[in-house]
Design a protein that fits this description.
Helices cover 14% and strands 45% of the residues. By secondary structure, the protein is mainly beta. Strand 13 and strand 14 (247-253) form a beta hairpin. The protein is globular and about 50 Å long.
Length: 283
């Protein structure tokens, strides 16, 4: 009997509870909507703020590289990563010129504001660089040339250096790993062959975001410089014959994972480089 009475009271009171709840909700809704703009007037949705690029995804290009004895300053075409000048504190300035498609065309080497050497890139019909011509300060007298072989990714795999008469002086054969880093260089000169092998970190290389950076610095005389111009950063260079001393590279990285400090150690000598960058918009 008691169970039935309780059930009946609950049934009777349920509409009253629902009515009271509706009143409370209606009152809250009215008070909340007071002072709000007319919903009929559409308001533009505010744009979401731009999300910062994660440190590992930022694109940087070098602006200065400073050693104990030399400061190198990199100049670029406005708002781009196209290298136009490399200015050195010892008076040397390298100027870079490009074709309409952005591929290298010429370079000029100036010392104390006077032209010292000029080089010209010769392209095949397929757009590959097949030859680099060297000229003296007059810009017309040949001082030698380089013949190139490139793979399908336009990476130089063979480089032959010829004197002004066309005689072979030196030959290099270059191999890469899947990341695009130079892992071996075989140099043959006067019948003698020197082999260089290298290992790398997994951080962005100093020059990797400069278009055609390997081509621009291809005719650097030091074999060691080959590894520096890779997509990642060399950790160690080893040579055959063993009479050539190995080199080791130790880095400090900035917040974007690019090298900001580099120590190059060879025997008892250590050279320290400090690198600064600027950010560019990813393509």
């Amino acid at each position: 009997m008691n169970r039935k009475i309780v059930f009946s009271v609950g049934v009777l009171l349920r509409p009253i509870y629902l009515w009271a709840l509706c009143c409370i909700l209606l009152s809250y809704s009215c008070s909340k909507n007071q002072g709000l703009p007319d919903p009929a007037k559409k308001k533009e949705k505010p744009k979401d703020p731009e999300k910062p690029v994660p440190p590992g995804n930022s694109v940087l290009i070098p602006t200065t590289i400073k050693s104990q004895n030399l400061l190198m300053t990199f100049k670029y075409e406005a708002e781009s990563n196209l290298l136009t000048e490399l200015i050195q504190s010892d008076g040397w300035v390298t100027k870079f010129f490009y074709r309409k498609d952005g591929t290298p065309m010429e370079q000029e080497y100036h010392k104390d504001n006077k032209l010292q050497q000029k080089i010209s890139y010769v392209h095949s019909k397929e757009g590959m660089v097949e030859k680099i011509l060297l000229f003296d300060k007059s810009g017309t007298t040949s001082t030698g040339s380089y013949f190139l072989v490139q793979d399908e990714k336009k990476r130089t795999t063979q480089l032959k250096k010829l004197d002004p008469r066309g005689k072979l002086v030196e030959e290099e054969n270059i191999s890469y790993n899947p990341q695009g880093n130079i892992i071996s260089v075989l140099v043959t000169n006067n019948g003698n062959t020197t082999a260089m092998t290298s290992t790398y970190d997994n951080r962005p290389g100093i020059y990797r975001n400069i278009p055609y950076f390997q081509l621009l610095f291809l005719i650097q005389p030091q074999v060691q410089s080959r590894a520096i111009y890779s997509n990642n950063n060399p950790l160690r260079l080893d040579y055959l014959p063993l009479s050539i001393t190995s080199s080791s590279f130790t880095y400090e990285y900035n917040s974007n994972n690019y090298p900001s400090n580099l120590d190059i150690k060879k025997e008892k000598h250590t050279e320290t480089l400090k690198i600064t960058y600027k950010k560019i918009k990813p393509k």
